[in-house]
Amino acid sequence: MANLRIEHLNKRYGAATVLNDVSLSIEAGEFVVLVGPSGCGKSTLLRMIAGLDGASSGDIHIAGRLVNTLAPAERGIAMVFQSYALYPHMDVRKNMTFGLKFTGVPPAERKRRVAEAARMLRLEELLERYPRDLSGGQRQRVAIGRAIVREPAVFLFDEPLSNLDAALRVSTRVEIARLHRMLKATIVYVTHDQVEAMTLADRIVVMNKGRLEQVGKPLDLYYAPANLFVAGFIGSPAMNFFEAKVESVEGGRARVTGAGLRNLDLPATSLKVGDALTVGVRPEHLAQGTSGPFVAEGVVELVERLGESSFAHVRRVDDRLFVAEVRGRETPTPGERMTLIAATQDVHVFDASGLRVS
Amino acid sequence: MTVEQRAKSLGVHLVLIAYSALAVGPLLLVVMNSFKARNAIFGAPLAPPDASTFSLVGYEKVFRASNILTYFSNSLIVTLVSMALVLLFGAMAAWALTEYRFRGSTALALFLSIGIMVPIRLGSVAILNMMRSAGLNDTLTALILIYVAQGLPMAIFILSEFMQQIPTDLRDAARCDGVPETRIFLEVVAPLLRPAIATVAVFTIVPIWNDLWFPLILTSSDSTHTVTLGVQQFLGQYITDWNSVLAALSMAILPVVVIYVILSRQLIAGLTSGAVK
Amino acid sequence: MPEPVSQIVAQMPRRKRAGLLLLFLGPAVAIYSLFSIYPLIATMALSTYTSDPSGARHFVGLANFETLLGNSLWSKPFWNALGNNLIFFTVHMCVQNPIGIALAGLLSLPGLKLKGLYRTVMFLPTMLSVVIVGFSWNLILSPLWGVAAGALKAVGLGSLFAPWLGLESSALVTLSLISVWQFVGIPMMLIYAALLNIPEELIDAARVDGLGHFRIFFHIKLPLVLPTIGLVSVLTFVANFNAFDLIYSIKGALAGPNFATDILGTFFYRTFFGNQLQLGNPTMGAAVATVMFFIILAGVCLYLFLVQRRIRRYAL
Q1: Is C42 on the interface with A (CB under 8 A)?
Q2: Of the candidates B249, B246, B248, B252, the residue with the CA atom closest to the CA atom of residue B40
Q3: How many angstroms separate the CA atoms of A224 and A131, rounded?
Q4: What percent of chain A lies above the pLDDT cut of 90?
Q5: ipTM of the prediction greater than 0.90, yes or no
């Protein structure tokens, strides 16, 4: 029984379509991350689940109830905002209990929930303080606490880590993952950072221009991206792309040529001569070598040394760059010619429309 | 939720429309009736003037019996000159306060801010004595001096806020080139103050144009009266002559309304931006 | 965050800096001190003198104030005027400011259409001269013209009509309401600006917390604009104690009927200039002005004291 079910959701602002036929099903206790570039519609989708904005058409079910016409407070959701949105004129305790008062939760119960959430988030010392006296990380914990005390069916997080500095972001990320395990909560989490998505999610929903590009487990998206967009979005540094064409097909194998590709030999399956393809390989799957089903070559332009792994930016024949990961102390020098190989299963092929070719 | 929102919108608009009608209604009534013949004013006050009831007799009287044009020109002179001086001296003072900080600058800022809170009218006794002894009694100059003194504190305050946003680099670059301070002020800083001028204008022009007290106290002869005083005295004199009275009021209302409607966006932006501090 | 003081300026030779200060500050400070501050001080000094029929002035210390507050010839009208001022102020605080707050609340609702038009129209009366406003309302409320009477009759409340401006019992309140009608625009705009400063996310959080629009206004929006409301209150206070133009244009210097609309401003004017009932008395006028100054000062100090403590609390 899905905890959150979205069916054919559409949202239009005048002539612009912001969400296009979005359907999604989320199980109880799942941590789902909506990720995508800005303007892809992920925040809009979140706000519609929350009930802060109305949909143009489509249905939303939370915990089995149709919630289309219900106000946010009646939907069984709680939201953590990007800028925490704490009431500045109330102390931490009041911030957390304020909403409960208006939804008819008796005082004893309110006290219990606040104490529980404060313990979970290590806020006991801060209950009498005001938001202006708290650090960014502390404010974020209070915002999460405010959501926890509502005991909602679904937690909604709207880019909660964007306003934190890098170090705090990592520790808060761990905190959120810990809370998920403790509360066994259903979480819908919006971010533009694919690292956050990969580390936190049970399933990732990649969105682009109001559509769902792919929904799946993080590693599924990493190893088997369904289209060019997902392939280029997931993984850091991004996947390398080579434009290519099928030269010949014989004996169940296709020969593909493209700029920078010395050799590419793929299982033919559905490929035909003349097909235009985009071939993708991740930097970390390229190794130094001279022969194999996939061989790429070029001249090293720049090497970024990060310690155990370095990234060589290689300029190929058509003047575009691709990136290869090199491990160890021996790194190539700029100006040097490099040949790189990859295994067949690490080569992703996409057809002219950007879809994966199996 | 959407149905709820829509209903709320309707209720909200009703209230706003009702209040807007209350705000504008009386003025419309006055202006409308100023163009009607006397019996039409009393017979059907709420009806707009039509071919049979249209009449300009009130306006003719106003022009004949009073120096309305002199009053307008006086008001215009006083308001514009005061505004210009307030802007000039105010900008200079704001510049000095923000740029050339010195030990007494906070004290001076405090000193100037007294003028914002305390009404200048209370010193009228002394002001009148001063003007009399300086021979400036019954002149527009006296009015201008008072209004400039009145408008300076607020102008300095608003302009200081704006000036603090100008990047130091901009000012220093000119200095490195050896440009003298006065020219930096006139050619680098002053042009950047354009947005602030609308805000200062709101706070300066309106109180000066509409002021009754100082023209009443400082100007005795008809030729130095401002519009506000002139209209007030005309009204007092011709109080039973409804046509003239309505015409005089309309003549006082219309210029302000026209200018207001033209400049309303800047005026309101000015109020909502700087005033809140 | 204001830009730091230029380093070049900081290193200027003192004489040069002094010269610049004189040039730039001079005119403003001169005019302001001469025509704003000095007259106030001179007036306060004058209030300690009295003048005899020959025009000569004698120092009498606080005698004028004793007369003003003790001698019933002076104190009766003084306390009457002060009391009227308080009624005037109360009407403004109880009618003008709540209406202004409510209108600002409505105008700040997100997605409201025609916002600009409403704002422009509702702010229009504030732009007009008090003379125009006073006189127009005088005409409208006049029983001779019958517009107000007719309007009331049209909604079935015809019996309520009375020549309010002419009756001792209702004249002051009516005048106050006319003033309110004119100046609602100011609290409306100031509070509207303050409401706009409240981040949208805060309202969203309140909606998720379960508050309806009404509760959001009272528990979230209103507390956060309290500093602005304080500012509006003190501005109202100063303006009310300074009021004169409206009373003068509708009722003249005598502020009838029977001094029912007399406030400190008209009292001051009469005392200072005289009228058909009394000779002008500059020294007593100065005393009245001094008293007015201290009343206003007291109000402003109270505001500064209260607000200084609270304004930190609502830092967003």
Answers
A1: no
A2: B246
A3: 44
A4: 40
A5: no
